[in-house]
Amino acid sequence: MSEHNDPANDAIAPVAVRPADNAAVAALLADPRYRTAMLAEAVDGLRTRFPDASAAVAFTRIQQVIGFTLAAIVVACTVAWPMPTVITLTSIMTVVYVLTFADRLLLFGRGLTNGAIEIPDEQARAIPDDDLPSYTILIPAYNEPEVVGELIANMHALEYPKDKVQVLLLLEADDDVTITAAHGLDDDDMVTVVLVPPADPRTKPKACNYGLGFATGDIITIYDAEDAPDPLQLRRVAAAFIDADNDVVCIQGKLSFHNATDNTLTKWFTADYGIWFGFLLPGIMASHSPIPLGGTSNHFRRTLLDEIGAWDPHNVTEDADLGVRIAARGYRTAVIDSVTMEEANVDGINWIRQRSRWYKGYMQTWLVHMRHPVRLWRTLGFTQVYRFTLLLAGTPLIACVNMAFWMILLIWITGQPAAIAQLFPGPLYYLALISLIFGNGAAIYMNIVAIREDDRPELFGSALLVPAYWVMMSVAAIKGMWQLITSPSYWEKTVHGLATSNADRHDTADDADSGSVR
């Protein structure tokens, strides 16, 4: 039985009400008791209603026991039988490498042949205004005064009836600089500033949960403060929901960057996003597997968020977690060919901070959903749990282990010591060679194909240097896994406003406005 049909899951109702209009929103914002109740709901709502779905506890007791036991076994075996133990670990990781790149190639191929849902401009604009659903756009921002003006301009650029769009700008109540920058919005009928009371955890999902208590829309979406969405995105999503099956409860838009050519890092990052949103996510959709959502431009039916507990404020990739919870309830997510432009990190340190949070959150999400592996298996099936494990747990772990294998390769190249040769006996040597040549070759191949399909020739040269990007990924993964142990819910803020060029913003926005940008 699908989990969303189990009445036991909804034993405790959320405290949020759904205001009918802006006047009702204003009344709720002025009500201190409701604000207090909503803050409690934002922090503890998911943990109260569905305790096992919350990452408030990073490791359950049984996970701690299993982890310490496995670590003790590995240490004991390494002391007693050092070379056989290291060979065994090397063999396991080599097999995982082969399985992972084979699955990525499969998903990439399916993404090439199936692609995202395409809604032409004419179809999007053909829906009568009266038939369009009401929309709430949640925009959490913290210490970002420089983007407020552009943010509001981007919201007003959306082609959607203004009386059916509610924009909630979610600001921390102690974020004085952004609050000051937002003072000019008092006369804007579309935008309502919501001050989120300061409370731990200081995370984006907590702010979104709080904002949900003041949302009027039938569909809820999130944009980051610097986002510039396709002006027709809301209409495209509304049309996609009309055409979709009833079990499609979330539609994910594509993300790209307006400053792709700022430096080599932004080129790598843009190609990385091109593969993920342009091909892998559509491939995952075609495979009916759980889709780890992006942090922005995901559009939800409001009823879904009320049912499953909205976002986990303790998970630092609340988007990926929510995507898996959607699948675990028997629902589906679709991917639409509508692009939101963001700002790519131009600074390596800032990029590592962001990517380490993503890696940490992926592992958080896997640990949460593997608390009941049998139940997840029954809901999703073997193939989907296998793929979920490769994506959510395999991605950060492989990125960590990469560093060790690169060190082994470097040592072998410099001196060819016999001990390194002993690590790869017989068939393992050839399997590792296949992984080295075909695995890395496949990653570069996917980069080049994605760049060609997206018609981004300016990114081609950087694709040949992408192994340096993998080194940065490995550093970020090691940092993220360390933080998972020491500070699992700590949210490292990504600094925006560092872009040195906006040249790509207008060109890509024009492409997005005319339909597909692939």
Can you walk through the features of this model?
- With 518 residues, the chain is α/β, with parallel strands linked by helices.
- The chain contains 20 helices and eight strands.
- It has helices at 22-29, 32-49, 61-80, 82-114, 121-126, 148-156, 176-181, 204-212, 233-243, 264-286, 302-308, 318-328, 348-369, 373-380, 382-415, 418-422, 426-453, 460-463, 467-486, 503-513; strands at residues 135-141, 165-172, 191-196, 219-222, 228-229, 248-257, 298-301, 332-342.
- The protein has an eight-stranded mixed beta sheet with strand order 3-2-1-4-7-6-8-5, with helices on both faces.
- Helix 2 packs across helix 8, helix 4 (82-114) crosses helix 15 (382-415) and helix 15 packs across helix 19 (467-486).
- The chain is globular, with a radius of gyration of 23 Å.
- The two termini are 39 Å apart.
- Residues 5-13 and 503-518 have low confidence and may be disordered.
Q: How do the strands and helices of this protein lay out in sequence?
A:
Elements (H helix, E strand, L loop, with lengths): L21 H8 L2 H18 L11 H20 L1 H33 L6 H6 L8 E7 L6 H9 L8 E8 L3 H6 L9 E6 L7 H9 L6 E4 L5 E2 L3 H11 L4 E10 L6 H23 L11 E4 H7 L9 H11 L3 E11 L5 H22 L3 H8 L1 H34 L2 H5 L3 H28 L6 H4 L3 H20 L16 H11 L5
Parallel strand pairs: 1-2, 1-4, 2-3, 6-8
Antiparallel strand pairs: 4-7, 5-8, 6-7
Helix pairs in contact: 2-8, 3-4, 4-10, 4-15, 4-17, 10-17, 12-13, 13-15, 13-19, 14-15, 15-19
